Amino acid sequence: MAGPGPVSKSMIDPFGRAISYLRVSVTDRCDFRCFYCMSENMTFLPKADILTLEELDRLCSAFVAKGVRKLRLTGGEPLVRRGIMSLIGSLSRHLKNGALDELTLTTNGSQLAKYAGELHDHGVRRINVSLDTLDPERFHAITRWGDFDKVTAGIEAARAAGLAVKINAVALKDLNEDELPDLIRWAHDKGMDLTLIEVMPLGEMGESRLDQYVPLSLVRARLAQHFTMEDVADRTGGPARYVRIRETGGRLGFITPMTHNFCESCNRVRITCTGTLYTCLGHEDSVDLRAPLRASASDDLLAAAIDRAIGAKPKGHDFIIDRRHNRPGVGRHMNVTGG
Ligand code: SAM
Ligand code: SF4
Questions:
Q1: Going by fewer Cβ within 10 Å, which terminus of the chain is more open, N or C?
Q2: Which ligand is nearest to the CA of 204?
Q3: Is the dihedral of CA 187, 191, 192, 195 positive or negative?
Q4: Which pTM was predicted?
Q5: Measured from the CB, is residue 77 less than 6 Å from ligand 2?
Q6: Which residue has the higher pLDDT, 99 or 320?
């Protein structure tokens, strides 16, 4: 596959934030249909629009050459993309030569039993697995197509392969709120961190977002009746705030996009599987990188397009304003940018 593109200075946006973290949605497809993420009869992108594995490698490598130190593959479900292991194997060269600190992924866990060992062989050391409930029936209600046993077996396979697993759970009003203490104890008993996520207003799905939305401030207040939470100082530039639960010794994260508390330290950008660059999850503004990628075998056009996009990265997102106006903040679905 292609080598890294032209080396240039690190990417600094107009607000002085260095961009060091790239999230890449390698496919918009998924073997689940989580109700807050997709409708059951989703229309997926035509295959011709989707970047090939070689193009994804070239695009990621151009960002690595520009100073990205952490790469997260997501989707849709990244592990259902055909040939995904060859892409991960190829990208692992950036780990080996020290250009990249971390290659990781966010997955629904369904394919982990198959791939955990190979992921570890390619230098992946930590993964995020999304799991909102420990109740198989609720799991089915949330994911529609998911198989709970397969996911828990996948998590065990990942741990056995030596991967550190962090669990991501979306806090859902009336759906899993009551079992969050159990989910936390379960994860922490196995030595896994757990991060709670607020439902974000992405995509139209015919159900009111406000029916699903429970503010994490409320969740946290309720959890305080079960646990002693101690603030953990370290912030990693990401949107999560962490506490240590004294009773379990484990870490609990809160991602609260609706409360606008992390944009000032944002170090990340996202690309979709069609090569569209989003410099902010909460904005419609995007830049097409597929055209410059395909226009030339050299990476000069691509590098210039990336620079222009970083130079226009917005200061923060507009979710709150849009929520007040009671319409979805952003029309695209979460599986397009991968969260
Ligand atoms: N399929 C993989 C997975 O589920 O982990 C990766 C992609 S998924 C879009 C990434 C994360 O976004 C998951 O943790 C999922 O729960 C979360 N997510 C999806 N739709 C969301 C929404 N509307 N609000 C908040 N989180 C959402
Ligand atoms: Fe698939 Fe992940 Fe979206 Fe669920 S949240 S439908 S697993 S992409």
A1: N
A2: 1
A3: positive
A4: 0.90
A5: yes
A6: 99
Q: Is the CB of 34 under 6 A from ligand 2?
A: yes
- Determine, yes or no, domain membership for 11: no
Copy the structure tokens of residue 222. 């309720």
Whichever domain contains 146, its CATH number is 3.20.20.70
Q: What is the Cα gyration radius of the chain?
A: 19
Q: Identify the residue whose C-alpha is closest to ligand 2 atom 3.
A: 37
Is residue 28 in contact with ligand 2, taking CB distance under 6 Å?
no
| Distances 243 to 81, 217, 218, 231, 234 between C-alpha atoms, Å | 35, 13, 15, 4, 10
**Residue 10 forms part of a structural domain:** no
Looking at residue 214, what is its pLDDT?
87
Q: How far apart are CA 76 and CA 225, in angstroms?
A: 36
For residue 335, give the ligand 2 atom closest to its CA. Answer: 8
Task: Classify residue 16: in a domain, yes or no.
Answer: no
What is the pLDDT, as a whole number, of residue 259? 58
Residues with a CB atom less than 6 Å from ligand 1:
30, 36-37, 74-75, 77, 106-108, 130, 168, 170, 197, 199-200, 202, 334-335, 338-339
Domain extent for 244: 21-337
Ligand 2 centroid from CA 78, angstroms: 10
Ligand 2 binding pocket includes 129 (Cβ within 6 Å): no
Q: What DSSP state is assigned to residue 195?
A: E
| Total number of domains constituting the chain | 1
Ligand nearest to the CA of 203: 1
Could you tell me if residue 166 is inside a domain? yes
Bridge partners of residue 164, in order along the sequence: 126
Contact of 30 with 143, CB cutoff 8 Å: no
Which residue, judged by its Cα, is nearest atom 4 of ligand 1?
A: 108
Ligand nearest to the CA of 202: 1
Higher pLDDT residue, 5 or 267? Answer: 267
